[in-house]
Amino acid sequence: MNVSADLDHLNQLLPLKARQDALDPVLRDLHRKVLLSFAATGRPLSRAQIAAQHGVDNVDDMLAQLAADDLIVLSADRKEITGTYPFTVEQRVHRVNINGQETYAMCALDALSIAPMCNASTRILSQCHVTDTPVEIQMNADKVLSAMPADVHVGIRWQSTSGCAAKNLCMEMVYLKDASTAQAWQQQDPENISIYPLDQAVEFGAAFFKPLLAA
User: Fold this and answer.
1) Global pTM?
2) Domains of the chain, CATH where assigned
3) Would you list the DSSP string of 63-84?
4) Euclidean distance between CA atoms 139 and 112, whole angstroms
C-alpha cells in the first residue's frame, strides 16, 4: 500500500479540507466549533447553541450549506447535527472515549484519527468486521499505546461517497483482527480493497483529519 497515494485518493472522494477552505469564514469557524464540541463533550453543537451565536433565522441555511458539502450529517428532519467526520452520535460499532466523554466514530479510520486530530487521549472499542473479535485501542495523540488484538489491521473497500460518505464509504472502513484475516477479506475484492497495519492507518488518518483543526 502507498499511504500518500491513498491519501490523495481519499481527498478526491471526500475533499473535506478543500471544502472547508472554500467556506466563508463564518461557516468555516462553525465547522471547526462542531468538531471541537465533539472533542470536548462527545456531542455536536445543538441548534440552540448555533442560534445563540448566529441568530435563529440563520441556522437552517448554515446547516444546509455544511450538509451540502458533506461536512456535517443532519438528522432526518434536517434540524440537528448528528455527525461531522470523524465523529457521530449515531450508535456505530466504533465507540470512542475522549476526554472522559463517550462518542462514536463514523468508521475504523475515523476512530484512529480522533486522538491525533484533537491532540487527545482516546480509548477505542470496536470489533473485527469478519470475526466480531473485540478490538480495543488506546491512543495518545498520534501514538498507539496498546492494541488488542496486537496485530489488528484496518481495511478500506474503496467506493463512491454518493454525496454522503457516512452512508456508504464509511461502512466499509473496518477493523480486521490480524494480517491473515485482513488478507482473506482483501481477496474478496482485491482491486478495490486496501489493507493497512495499525501504524500506517494512524498515519493515514492523522494526515487526512489534522488539517481540519489547523490554524
Assistant:
1) 0.95
2) 16-84 (1.10.10.10), 87-213 (3.30.450.410)
3) HHHHHHTTSSEE-TTSSSEEEE
4) 8
